[in-house]
Amino acid sequence: MTSIRNYAFSDFTISIDANEHNLWQQVQLEHAQEKIKFKHRFRLEERFIDKIVTTSNGNYDRDGNTYNTRFRYRFTLTRPLLKIDDNKSISVELFDELFISLEEGIRPKSFNQNWFYAGLKYPITSRIGLGIGYHNIGLNGGNPTFITNHILQTTLTYVMN
Q1: CA–CA dist 88, 74 (Å, integer)
Q2: Is 99 exposed, middle or buried, given 0-12, 13-18 or 19+ CB atoms closer than 10 A?
Q3: How far is CA 131 from CA 87, 96, 116, 124, in A?
Q4: What percent of the chain has pLDDT over 70?
Q5: What's the pLDDT at 12?
Q6: Which residues pair with 95 in a beta bridge?
Q7: What DSSP string runs through the chain?
Q8: How confident is residue 151, by pLDDT bands cut at 50, 70 and 90?
Q9: Is the pLDDT of residue 158 over 90?
Q10: What is the mean predicted confidence (pLDDT) over 126-146?
Q11: Which of 28, 29, 54, 68 could disulfide-link to 40, CB 3.0 to 4.6 Å?
Q12: Computed from CA positions of residues 51, 4, 24, 29, in that sequence, does the dihedral angle turn out positive or negative?
């Protein structure tokens, strides 16, 4: 389960932040061909999002939750780039993730988002990794609005096996 705070981020969005709580089911498949590793992640999200209403004085407020579902597919490609020693190398990582909003059940309703990432990752230890790269987030803001965010992303990962 994840908890997210959706912030008002532009002049044309509603000027109130909304909380979102997600439950999700996920399957991840991995395979390799020579030095290249491939990952396919399939995720079904159940989203509980603050319902935003207009008050009698024209302001916005939260009133309960709305429920919707979303399907996400992420394709990731990782390849070693520069060998540091026998056990460590800097790798290039690319991924593209497509988000599809669903109608009741699991029928596709509309395109929601697309995330693209290109960056480098480095294993600090066998369990801890550091990454840095360019992350492009494309959001469907509704006809005719499409929002693009360009982000310098840093990532710290910890494997809990």
Answers
A1: 25
A2: buried
A3: 17, 16, 15, 10
A4: 91
A5: 55
A6: 76, 117
A7: -EEEEE---STTS-SS-EEEEEEEEEEEEEEEETTEEEEEEEEEEEEEEEEEEE-TTS-EEEEEEEEEEEEEEEEEEEEEEEE-SSS-EEEEEEEEEEEEEE-STT-EEEEEEEEEEEEEEEESSSSEEEEEEEEEEEEE-STT-EEEEEEEEEEEEE---
A8: very high
A9: yes
A10: 87
A11: 29
A12: positive
Nearest alpha carbon to residue 29 among 98, 76, 91: 76
In this structure, what token pair is assigned to residue 52? Answer: 């935003």
Q: What is the identity of the amino acid at 17?
A: D
Name the residue with tokens 């979303």. Answer: 70
Evaluate if residue 106 carries a pLDDT over 80.
no
Six token digits for residue 22: 């997600």
